[in-house]
Amino acid sequence: MSAAPSSEKLRGKTQPKFDSLEFAAGIARGFAGALLFALPMLMTMEMWELGFYMDRTRLLLLLVINIPLLIFLSDRIGFETTSTWSEAVRDASIAYGLGIVCSALILSAMGILRNDQSAHEVIGMIAIQAVPSSIGAMLGRSQLGGQSDEIDDHGDGDDPVDSRETSYAGELFLMAVGALFLALNVAPTEEMILLSYKMSPWHALAIIVASLAIMHGFVYTLSFHGSHDLAEGTPGWHAFVRFTLPGYVIALAISGFCLWTFHRIDDTSTTQALMTTVILSFPGAIGAAAARLIL
User: Fold this and answer.
1) What are phi and psi of 278, to 5 degrees?
2) Is the pLDDT reported for residue 186 higher than 70?
3) Which of 10, 34, 68, 209 could bridge 136 with an S-S bond, Cβ 3.0-4.6 Å?
4) Please, how many CA atoms are within 13 Å of residue 138, restricted to the half-sphere of its CB?
5) Exposed, middle or buried by CB within 10 Å (0-12, 13-18, 19+), for 115?
6) pLDDT tens readout for residues 74-114
7) φ, ψ at 116 (rounded to 5°)
8) Contact 192, 279 (CB under 8 A)
9) Where does 78-189 have alpha helices with state H?
């Protein structure tokens, strides 16, 4: 009669071995991603000023919304391949921490954070910058590496992230992530308000049409790496109605949320707020389409 398998063997079958070197490389890529993707916002004066006067309830809401977003991204493109939600939560927490540390270091190095500032100001500036920085930290794995160190037992270099199937809800969520990331770059700027005053309704309509055309072209027409192919026999309008149109609605909603969060549409008329939202939805739509390609 054969002996029962040891607990070590059982654990070895159910739990993958933790690779500390791979995890450390993921942390390094995360910090590099936080710096690369969030640097434009770290060097934007409007983002610094928001740390002073931004309503703390709106800031808290933005920070809370960022948590499930990071968890989903972690499950998709975390610092290492995750198999449970607890691992995804762990990596999301690390990304948030990297975003906070990166923001504090860069703002301090540029002389934005000073000893004579109150804790209210310092925490506000770091907190608002930590959102794009943490998203950048999570994107670091996808954009700054991951293929070479995810080699499977057969020796091929396919990244499991690239081959992972994404549900319809997951596709929509990825578009929301992309729209949020790009919208955060420009939503605090004065140019969004200025452009909305220069626009006519015809300009707004042209921007909406251009946004839809670019979104659809990026994913289905221009044959970028990661683009999607329509199944044989599927009409072209199907993807437009199922993905492009809902994606633009998501980008529009994300844009409105960012403008409200950053006080950009306070005390403005409904028409002016809508025009500003349409302006911001243009980069938001591009971000939504790009997220489907690169994530």
Assistant:
1) -65, -40
2) yes
3) 34
4) 35
5) exposed
6) 887 766 666 677 888 888 898 899 999 999 999 999 999 98
7) -85, 0
8) yes
9) 85-109, 119-144, 160-163, 168-186
Name every residue whose Cβ is closer than 8 Å to that of residue 178 and which is 6 or more positions away in sequence: 287, 288, 289, 290, 291, 292, 295
What does the DSSP 8-state code read for residue 233?
Answer: T
> For residue 154, with 0-12 CB atoms within 10 Å meaning exposed, 13-18 middle and 19 or more buried, which class applies?
exposed
In this prediction, residue 26 carries a pLDDT of 73
Nearest to 98 by CA among 57, 126, 77: 126
Helices (H), the chain: 7-14, 20-42, 45-53, 56-77, 85-109, 119-144, 160-163, 168-186, 191-198, 201-216, 236-239, 245-261, 270-294
- pTM value is 0.79
What type of residue is 75?
D
37 Cβ partners below 8 Å, 6+ apart? 132, 133, 135, 136, 139, 140, 181
